[in-house]
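Teaching assistant here, posting this on the class forum so everyone can see the example we discussed in section. The complex has two components, and the goal was to see what a joint structure prediction looks like when all of them are supplied at once.
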Amino acid sequence: MELFALEHKRLWRTPRVWICVLLCFIYSVVWGSVMWYQWLGFGTQNDSTDIYDHNFDGYTAIRDWQEQFSQFGDHWTDETLQKIVAAYQSYDIYEKPGIQSMGDWILAYECLHDLYQELADPENQQYQPLILYADTTKLTDFYQRRADLLEFTLEATRQNEGMSEADKQMLLDMNSQIQEPWPYEWTRGWAELSFDWSDLAPYLAIALAFLFSGEWHNSTAPMLHTIKYGWKKLARVKVLSGMAFALELYALIAVGDVAAQLIFLGTSGWDLPIQYVDILAVAPWNMLQAELYKLAFGLIGVFGYAGLVMLMSALVKSNVLALVFSLAFVYVPDVLGRYLPKWLLAVSQYLPLVGSPNDIYGYNIFHIFGKSVWSPWMMITVPGLIGIVCIPLAIRGWSRRERV
Amino acid sequence: MELSIDRLTKHYGHKIAVDRVSATLTPGVYGLLGANGAGKTTLMRMLCAILEPTSGEVRLNGKEVSAMGGAYRDVLGYLPQDFGYYPSYTAAEFLSYIAALKGIPREAAKRRVRELLEMLDLQSVSNKKIKTFSGGMKQRVGIAQSLLNNPQVLILDEPTSGLDPKERIRLRNLLSEYAADKIVLLSTHIVSDVEAIADEVLVMNAGQFIMHGTVPELAERVRGKVWELTVPREKARLWQAQVTVANYRHEGDQVALRILSDDKPSEQATPCEPILDDAYLYYFGAKEA
């Protein structure tokens, strides 16, 4: 335990590490959360063409929108959609630019675009969106239209992408568990919640890539080999302290993000279904469950990525190579995605911090030992398994390298 | 206590770094002398069980050291040639950290760190970061870390490099005192360091021990081969080209040459009392040394 505490302390007191943590906190929490809520994301707008022309009033603006949209009822019915669309048609969106970005414009816009295409006027369509001229009295049968479109989409996927009938049925069964009518209140805040955990990758890589290779860089490796506890125990302690650091960094960012969310958005709307984010999603989850999933996705991704970075650090003697290889795991699939074979690109999404928790809105299904597994479960399992496999490999890799 | 080296060999591909080296070390100071590339560092790393030998073995009191594992490392102190440290650590923090890695209980480590900082004249800078230290001060931190666990076997690779004359004398005294009941093996190519403290000297060349004995014994090997000759300054260069000159000293218009030669180089040459430097130079030749 004392060794762990010492190694952990040594890791944290490296200037490179705390600078990384500080930058990560500023970028993710201060800029990515607090400034987003208060300024760029939810601050009222004077000019919709300038993305930086927001006022620093997100906190009060969010409350105004929550209050304004409560007038449309507490459940999503045809009437709710009609009222929202009618409200948009009554606003002058050019005079009130924030109405698009702040209200439930995207939700209403997508509902109409996806479910009420027959109302579109081909001549009018190129000048203004359907939401601004649709006949609101014809906005009916929302749930039936959604069910039809979902059936159509899944059937198209089955025919074009090889989805089996059983898989399609499994997705429809999931969908059937969604309670209707959906509870409703202003959804925009929840729909905007995003946890891009890949942002943590460079900070984790810079902090952990030197964990083992740094001993060569500092020329301390030969001396460490003569310590009583030996390389293996030291390697275990190093891996443990690296994992602890990764989890601490994750906790710092996750707690910061969630705290900002609670302060700015509050808790209301936690039970809204995730179909407000993607109306054709089939998972019978509410926003809170989706958020917990995204947090778990991040936690496991960070754990797996920390394992990968430490493995790279243990396998090479050069700090630079350890860092480059570590970053390559996250950025190569992203940069070279279009050149990779489709199957390889799909597999790469299961690397830690590479894929997206937004898979919960998708239909990917895997077949493992005869069982159908919904892709999001794989997304939070495979990166964790990669981390678990990397730990003993890193210890072994370091021990073999240590025989100088 | 006995550290025995039995036909220890290390190959790197076709290159032989250490070639069937054998010796038995008992408490005392051993100086390992040799030119760069003679195999000193490779031998020391094998003695520390850092490097696996190609063949042969190292035993401490009859037990194979690589099989002893932690028990051997518990009685071992090692200063690598390129001593590494953590730049953001102070001397005291670094020593405390290494003490913990060596498994020394916290209170005992505190006392030992204080003691070593004082012993190596580092107490006044104990709270300064090592990265701000001079080369000699860093080297003293390295020596201190090797002594933390009061090792029975102390192996120091070039411990005097970077030390000023005062510190070298301090280190020599420290090691002489320390070696009363422990094995100290130090490598250097500074012959005077070995001459001053080594009870025995092992001379390495091309991976082999080419000489082994006490300082007087090794010096004795060149008795009758060391001469002093005083020549005019203009002739000194001629002599240097013809024979091995161990020393060159100006005396007014004349130059006193210390010459290593099997035969009397000149009628005017007078025999000298040999020292270790002479033996080293005689066997390695002026160029290699």
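For the discussion questions: Residues 106-119 of chain B form the longest helix (14 residues). Chain B has a mean pLDDT of 92. Think about how each of these relates to the inputs above.
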